[in-house]
């Protein structure tokens, strides 16, 4: 039973490709000749079209859930040489911009000695400094930064009144009584008794 021509007409009516057109009973469709006949079969549901295939989102949803849990955060695979991953220019920009910004800030705050800004700027351009820490170490080592004014000395300050310490009253120590020897008393009594007898 050939229903190819009917499928072609149905595809044009439903505005889809022939591959999506399906037929439930071929006998009824074979008898349909005109477009109106096919339209009635489409309304009945004898001729219908399948759902359009799309890209599945199952894998994407699974990945999203895993990422929400904190998974799939490894380094992954890295291919290529060092400078192909990060070009030389970007490395240079990441290095020079903070150095120049630091020099500008120091000049704005008037912490650099006069004439040193241009010298240090050209040194940074030449790649002398590794990072900001290295630049600050160089400034400190060569004494190129202006030292902040020291606070006033003790002589310049108003004289502070010395605190008077209150003396605590001394406690009187009582002299300890000497213990009397008992043996000496006994001897005295004996001597007295002998004299009385005489």
Describe what you observe in this structure.
This protein is mainly α. Among the domains are: 4-49, 50s Ribosomal Protein L19e, Chain O, domain 1 (Orthogonal Bundle), CATH 1.10.1650; 82-141, Non-ribosomal Peptide Synthetase Peptidyl Carrier Protein, Chain A, CATH 1.10.1200.240. The chain is built from nine helices and two strands. It has helices spanning 4-14, 26-31, 35-44, 58-69, 82-85, 88-108, 116-125, 132-141, 182-197; strands at residues 21-23, 47-49.
Features:
two-stranded antiparallel sheet; 9 helices; 50s Ribosomal Protein L19e, Chain O, domain 1; elongated; 198 residues; Non-ribosomal Peptide Synthetase Peptidyl Carrier Protein, Chain A; 51% helix
CATH class of the domain at 82-141: Mainly Alpha
- Quote the distance from N terminus to C terminus: 175 Å
Low-confidence stretches: none
How are the strands ordered across the major sheet? 1-2
Based on helices, strands and strand pairing, what is the structural class?
mainly alpha
Query: Within the CATH hierarchy, at the fold level, what is the topology of the domain at 82-141?
Result: Non-ribosomal Peptide Synthetase Peptidyl Carrier Protein, Chain A
The profile of the biggest β sheet is: 2 strands, antiparallel
Write the layout of secondary structure elements.
Elements: H1 4-14, E1 21-23, H2 26-31, H3 35-44, E2 47-49, H4 58-69, H5 82-85, H6 88-108, H7 116-125, H8 132-141, H9 182-197
Antiparallel strand pairs: 1-2
